[in-house]
């Protein structure tokens, strides 16, 4: 107790006599060498900074102690280099000087680890005394209407404005002074029961009067560095503000007028389009009702005429004009000679046909069977009229004419005289007389003639045709070699396609248990009656496998009941002997059970073109 009382009297006496020296505030506090120094070394430290206290005794001496005194209470914190107080365990001993006994005090804040520190020798003699004082540099900003760091504010003369001076990291006591144009307007003292760092806000209201005013917020205190911020007010007269408000109102009114006129025009356009659509629908219903009230004529063709050309005989009242595209001559049905009826696996029936005067080459007449419904006749008539406007494509069978004024309707296509691609590859066409009856066999030379890249060119032509059909809103579900004709120059020509609007009806009517094209359809088409462009990717991959297998039928001897097990295999089709690795990889990218994972036709066309151009090696 006597030692504590002597230490307390020493501190009081030091303060009363003003024997306090200040350091340079660079983070180090040291005393002159020599024990029992009666001077208190003041250490000014910035907020949350650190300081090294250097006791003027050797760090290798014995019975060395560090003490702290806060609010009249003294505590030992270190003895001979070891911590004696858990609260100050983060302090560092003998880390900032090579020979002196030192103490490093980190993260100094008011009311925390500032205050008086003593270095004692032999547990009794005071070798050095240190006073740590924290000096803060607060952050000061002016806020206006929720916006921070305001520098310039536009307002109207006579308006009452409210500003906020927001101060961070201040040490009490702190004084905030508001000044307007250099004249102090408001002074406010902020204090705290504790000596800790805190934040606060000071409000200031004033009425703007002159054309330009400057408002300042000045923050000062004994333990902080003075800071000040300012905000400039640009004052506008009421008449000027009113004019600007009127101009803004005029602009808003003009904008509303433009928007209103635009909406009226848009609604008028919608009404016109709606009325036009309703009128067209009414006309279509009237025409359909009239057609339903008239019995369909029967096509008068002799059943025994297989190899001879016949004249299409029709009652005089049904005779009508026939249009051939690009021909200025008008023909009648009586001018057309129907020849041999060709067998076909599709829903169309086909005849070889020619003109009686022989002015045109032979062509194919395509129509529906007599059992077709009236909706079927309506669809083929609309499809024929649509085909008048599509451009020609080198890999699509040409549409040469149509007859849609009377039922039965006819679509006339070019007469391709070199058979199907399946025939060209050396296999039978399974009784497709449309191809085989006009085919001059290539014999065994076909296999020798066809090169790997030529087969890729065949595939590329068919793929280009499918992409073209997509661009004109047409589909060709289940493409296969039997649906590709070869002309005399060995150019592939795709036929038997339909409009996209009828694809769903076409697929729903397929009997897959008896369908000869079952292996070429995608799984989602067979089992879910679904169809998309990804379904074409699957069908085209099976078609490529057929081409590189010399026309063999894929998934041979597979029926509707067991073909799903073949689809589940990975990959579903093995690599043909003539198929290069690059082509087979493209096939596998198409033969995915998930449609969204299949390669797109456009990307497939790019890869196939690269292979044909020799940008990838041919390897089998």
Automatic annotation (TrEMBL):
The domain of life for this entry's organism is: Eukaryota
Q: Which GO terms describe its biological process?
A: cell surface receptor protein tyrosine kinase signaling pathway
Instruction: Tell me where in or outside the cell this protein is found.
Output: Membrane
Q: Coiled-coil regions in this chain? A: none
Signal peptide annotation: 1-25
Q: One GO CC annotation, please?
A: plasma membrane
Originating species: Stichopus japonicus (Sea cucumber)
- In Swiss-Prot or TrEMBL terms, this protein is called Chain B, Fgf Receptor 2 (Fgfr2) Kinase Domain
Membrane topology listed for this record: Single-pass membrane protein
| InterPro entries recorded | Ig-like_dom, Ig-like_dom_sf, Ig-like_fold, Kinase-like_dom_sf, Prot_kinase_dom, RTK, Ser-Thr/Tyr_kinase_cat_dom
Recorded GO MF terms: ATP binding; metal ion binding; transmembrane receptor protein tyrosine kinase activity
């Amino acid at each position: 107790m006597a030692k504590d009382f002597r230490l307390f009297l020493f501190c009081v006496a030091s303060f009363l006599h003003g024997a306090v020296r200040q350091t340079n505030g660079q983070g180090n506090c040291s005393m002159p060498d020599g024990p029992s120094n009666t001077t208190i070394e003041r250490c000014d430290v910035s907020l949350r900074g650190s300081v090294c206290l250097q006791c003027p005794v050797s760090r290798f001496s014995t019975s060395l102690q560090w003490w702290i005194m806060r609010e009249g209470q003294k505590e030992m914190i270190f003895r001979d280099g070891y911590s004696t107080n858990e609260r100050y365990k983060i302090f560092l001993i003998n880390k900032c000087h090579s020979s002196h006994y030192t103490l490093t005090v980190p993260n100094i804040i008011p009311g925390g680890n500032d205050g008086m520190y003593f270095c004692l020798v032999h547990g009794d003699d005071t070798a050095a005394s240190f006073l740590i004082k924290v000096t803060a540099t607060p952050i000061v900003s002016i806020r206006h209407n929720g916006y921070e760091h305001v520098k310039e504010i536009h307002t109207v003369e006579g308006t009452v404005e409210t500003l906020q001076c927001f101060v961070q990291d201040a040490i009490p006591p702190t004084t905030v002074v508001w000044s307007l144009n250099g004249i102090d307007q408001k002074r406010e003292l902020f204090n705290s029961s504790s000596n800790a760092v805190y934040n606060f806000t000071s409000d200031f209201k004033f009425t703007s009067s002159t054309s330009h005013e400057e408002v300042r917020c000045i923050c000062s205190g004994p333990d902080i560095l003075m800071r000040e911020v300012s905000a400039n007010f640009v004052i506008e007269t009421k008449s000027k503000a009113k004019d600007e408000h009127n101009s803004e109102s005029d602009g808003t009114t003009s904008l509303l007028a433009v928007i209103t006129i635009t909406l009226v025009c848009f609604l008028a356009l919608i009404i016109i389009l709606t009325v036009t659509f309703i009128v067209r629908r009414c006309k279509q219903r009237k025409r359909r009702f009239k057609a339903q009230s008239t019995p369909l004529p029967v096509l008068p063709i002799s059943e025994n005429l297989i190899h001879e050309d016949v004249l299409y005989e029709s009652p005089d009242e049904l005779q009508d004009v026939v249009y051939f595209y690009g021909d200025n001559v008008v023909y009648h049905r009586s001018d057309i000679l129907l020849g041999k009826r060709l067998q076909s696996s599709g829903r169309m029936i086909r005849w070889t046909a020619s003109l009686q005067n022989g002015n045109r080459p032979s062509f194919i007449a395509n129509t529906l069977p007599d059992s077709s419904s009236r909706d079927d006749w309506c669809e083929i008539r609309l499809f024929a009229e649509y085909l008048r406007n599509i451009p020609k494509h080198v890999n699509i069978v040409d549409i040469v004419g149509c007859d849609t004024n009377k039922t039965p309707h006819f679509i006339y296509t070019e007469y391709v005289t070199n058979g199907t691609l399946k025939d060209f590859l050396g296999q039978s066409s399974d009784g497709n007389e449309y191809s085989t009856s006009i085919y001059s066999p290539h014999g065994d030379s076909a296999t020798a003639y066809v090169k790997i890249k030529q087969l890729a060119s065949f595939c590329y032509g068919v793929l280009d045709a499918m992409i073209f059909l997509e661009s004109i809103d047409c589909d060709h579900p289940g493409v296969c070699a039997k649906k590709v004709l070869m002309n005399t120059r060995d150019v592939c020509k795709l036929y038997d396609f339909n409009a996209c609007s009828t694809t769903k009806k076409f697929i729903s009517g397929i009997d897959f248990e008896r369908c000869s094209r079952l292996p070429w359809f995608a799984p989602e088409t067979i089992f879910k009656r679904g169809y998309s462009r990804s379904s074409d990717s699957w069908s085209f991959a099976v078609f490529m496998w057929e081409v590189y297998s010399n026309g063999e039928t894929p998934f041979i001897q597979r029926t509707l009941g067991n073909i799903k097990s073949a689809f589940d295999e990975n990959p579903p089709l093995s690599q043909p002997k003539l198929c290069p690795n690059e082509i087979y990889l493209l096939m596998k990218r198409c033969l995915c059970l998930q449609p969204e994972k299949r390669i797109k036709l456009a990307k497939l066309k790019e890869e196939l073109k690269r292979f044909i151009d020799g940008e990838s090696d041919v390897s089998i």
